[in-house]
Amino acid sequence: MIYYLSVACLLGLSAGLSPGPLLSLVLSESLRHGAASGVRVACAPLISDAPIILLSWCLVTYLAAFEPVLGAISIAGAVVVGFVAVSSFKYPSIETNPAKEASRSLLKGVVVNLFNPQPYLFWGTVGAPLLVGAAELSLGLAAAFLAIFYLLLVGLKIILALIIGYYRNRFNLRIYRIINSFLGVVLLAFAVGLFWNGLVFLGVQ
Q1: Of 140, 168, 183, 201, which is least packed with CB atoms within 10 Å of its CB?
Q2: Do residues 180 and 17 lie in contact, with contact meaning Cβ atoms separated by under 8 Å?
Q3: Domain limits of the chain?
Q4: 30-44 as b/e: b if 16+ CB within 10 A
């Protein structure tokens, strides 16, 4: 139980802060149109991720009896997490050129996330297997896993949107970079663990 909740915290922290199309849109909308627009973008995964999670859950549940397949998924998950870890050491640039035109920020966020491969890769290789494992122990644990993950994923992006939107001319990326680098190191260790589990499922170890 503690394992799943801890992993939900780690993955949620990383997803909330790691560079990517959605975070870039959160930053740009906050700078161009203010904090409220950035907050709406940050909430987009609550809409766009539901069908991705459902599809990934069904696939992983169906494939659960085939250990070699689970091994391949685990190794693919290690690659995905490793990529996210490495990207944590890259930092988005912030430009302070606010614009006046109207913004359909929530729609932009949903569209960007639906056409972003990262949620599909994450839930197909990492998130859904963890969610299914949590559900085997308790549906309440699975719900807590999702709640913690999205609280951190969305919550951290909202905090960034508020900070950048209100203090766009004085925002300092130093603390953000330190936190992101630390998360990158922890994620690399988690990727190694996933890779090892994949080898176990494949009977290599």
Answers
A1: 140
A2: yes
A3: 2-201
A4: bbbbbbebbbbbbbb
Task: Give the span between the Cα atoms of 186 and 72, in whole angstroms.
Answer: 22
CA-to-CA distance for 94 and 97, rounded, in angstroms?
Answer: 9
Among 66, 54, 49, 76, smallest CA distance to 135 is for: 54
pLDDT band at 143 (very low <50, low <70, confident <90, very high): very high
Q: Which helix (H) or strand (E) holds 15?
A: helix 2-17
- Output the CA–CA distances (angstroms, integers) from residue 53 to 45, 49, 101, 120, 204, in the order listed: 11, 6, 34, 8, 30
DSSP 8-state code for residue 64: T
Question: pLDDT tens digit string along 97-106?
Answer: 444 444 578 8
Distance CA(34)–CA(18), nearest Å, equals 21
pLDDT at 65: 65
Can you tell me which residue has the tokens 């069908």? 51
Dist CA 72 CA 198 (whole Å): 6
Q: What is the DSSP letter of 106?
A: H
What is the full DSSP assignment across 152-181?
HHHHHHHHHHHHHHHSTTT---HHHHHHHH
Q: How far is residue 123's CA from residue 82's CA, in Å, rounded to a whole number? A: 15
The position carrying tokens 């953000």 is: 176
